[in-house]
Amino acid sequence: MKADGGLNGLKILHLRRMATLAPPKRHVSADEAREVAEAAREQEWASPSFVRDLFLGTLRMDLIHPYPEQDADEIARAKPFLDKLERFLREDVDSDRIDREGEIPDDVIDGLRKLGAFGIKIPREYDGLGLSQLSYMKAIELVSSVDGSLTALLSAHQSIGVPQPLKLFGSEAQKKKYFPRLAKGAISAFALTEESVGSDPAAMETTAILDDDTWVLNGEKLWCTNGTKAELLVVMARTPSKMVNGKEKKQITAFIVETDWPGVEVVHRCHFMGLKALFNGVIRFTNVRVPKENVLWGEGKGLKLALITLNTGRLTLPISAVAAGKRCLEIARRWAAERVQWGRPIGQHDAIAQKIGSMAANTLAMEAVAELCGAMAERGGYDIRLEAAIAKLYNSEAGWRIIDDTVQIRGGRGYETADSLRARGEPPVPVERIMRDFRINLIFEGSSEIMHLFIAREAVAVRRAQLPPAGARRVPLDDPVRAEARAAPVGALPSGRRRGRAVCDGGDLRARAATL
Q: What is the set of active-site residues?
């Protein structure tokens, strides 16, 4: 009994079962899934939001004009690091080798550590570089212009791994303990996804049970980026439910977990279509004892912590899409000027000229969107949950179209690997690798479909908050148009509509939604 840290017989039985038997799949109703998701939502708008006000029909130009330029002192502080990083990437990183071998060489990781690339936003008092969000994004743009696997390594560590939630929600003791390690290059990861848990966290099976002053963690996490290399993890787990006003309230809590603790095991490294060197795997937790002081923010606040962290964390992906767009535009323009068909460079044929024109316009738009959101996050005083979601959605989809057009413009050479091109004496332009590496951007950190749902859900919530109460009738979250219709009171329809009905026809309402 002492070897089990004083656990009583029932807890020992419970933990042994979880350690040795496959836990039963949790059957989650639609109502339960909705309740868990709603509980994690940020209900209040403490700061202004440009997009939120657009949904209310107000154009708040004062929020974006004049354009929130980066502080000159910050630019000067960041420049030496960015210059060294760019030189390192050009001289010491062989992306074709990384793709071919499926590994990031240790000397590349060590080189990034020496540059301070794992502590870009960690405050200087904890040995980090202490640079701003926009400086971090410029660093990620440089990395993304060279190699997608390196982008995943650095962004999973700093955008959603331990540093960002620790900075936002960590106690001073936690910061003193972990920030210096992270700044020196202790790689971190974020463990949320499970076999049955993607965008719907209500089905989570990983559990943590409190035993005196220690949490005992059991479960398995899937697709944990950096998980096979990480020293530190943010792990989401179900903790015992609480009763609030006579109703059960599900609890999901975030923990800082060290991977060298007994019971933490990497059971599989995952391999993918692209990002061949991704340190992504399945992590199993068997009776892992986590100190009570390693709870992040507070018991039951895990999902809200994740969503708030992602408000800023999602900005990594839009800026990496900008890098891909610029790289592809450069490749397409060069090829369109060099390749001659039918007596003229193909860039002078209308079909190709149209593609390149669209690529240039969308790359400019992507950069404006990404950098505006980064500047808002850097300046502070904004709520960017909608701006970040729209940036992620727009830039990932626009970036994918740009890459697809680049493959089309390059033709067979766009489909051929860089190694094959090199072997037969042509420039090893890695368009097919860029396409493979980029495709995941439409899925992770919120798929395009989830981003549409999230944006629509927030838009409806904003509009409903301005309307008189319409009763407690439950509305489905997966149909925000119906939600708005049911929330609209009698007589609240647009002018010219027949009064006396609370709900207009669906086509009519969709037209209204399109004008938001």
A: 445
